[in-house]
Amino acid sequence: MEPKQVRSWGKDLIGMGLLLLFLFLFLFSDRLSNTQYIQDLPAAWVNVNTIFLSIVLEAIPFILLGVFVSALIQIYVSEETIKRYLPKNALGALFPAAVLGAIFPLCECAIVPVVARLVKKGMPLHVGVVFLVAAPILNPIVFASTFFAFGSDWTHPVLLSRMSLAFVLSIIIGAILYMLFRNSYQLRAKKQEDHSPVVHNHHSGKPSFMNRVKETVYHAVDEFFLMGKYLILGALIAALFQTFLDRQVLQTIGANEYSSVLVMMGFAYLLSLCSEADAFVAASFGQNFTTASLIGFLVYGPMLDLKNTFMLFAYFRAKFVIAFMIIVTIVVFAAIILLNQFILPNWYQWF
Description:
This protein has 17 helices and no strands. The chain is an all-alpha fold.
């Protein structure tokens, strides 16, 4: 067996082991919590288990949504359709991509396979990037959760700043990555023919309905297991950080105007919360952190966190992922600082 095949088998075994570990903890956590062994464990490690399960359970419904959307795109959306509806001008396609992100209710857990599938189908890479960073924030579910988390106030600076920055920054990030990569192929796997075992009905010129259903399920299962192992690994690391980081130290550092933004952006990355729920966590820090840092938390986290970093590396080449991470971090931090200097001080005079 070649070394590359050995590494592939090793990754698959680790992924399967993590999936089995999650299923075991999920199914038997109540029984385990009553055993003497678990009761003798330090409280911190019990907390790791609780946070780990909560992150994964929160993400799985959106993962399932994402992989089924990805599978439907694979089966029903042709390359010709994508090319027909996309603007021919590369930069002109950025604005429609941001608008498209406001339509689909997908969080950062679910968006990665959808974008990878669209890019594989022929969507330009920079357009996929806009969709990747805009959709987890601009969708209606996130708007509603942020609205209710911050006092049901339509003019609250966190609500309006989060949505407007997500729209504008997604276009800026897409434009920068376009200049860097110029639509070069950045998916990890080379373009290849579909290996689905389902046989198409060539006599009728198109697959039968049942064959399409089988292909959709096949691709969804394949995507779910690919994403699942990265999700679980990211959730485990995030649970460790949440448990063992000293939050008092973070709050002390967060009192500074600039460091508070960096701390909350880093916190958003490590906590790896789904964008549909992160507003309530951000609101809980309102007494200790500045408004600008809360906006940084809510804009940066859905664009880039520990979970979707693993997923990005699963689908895209390392050079692209590293460039994406650096650009998103710099652009978001700079935008929050500018917002804090010129917009937030006069917010309530304008609204």
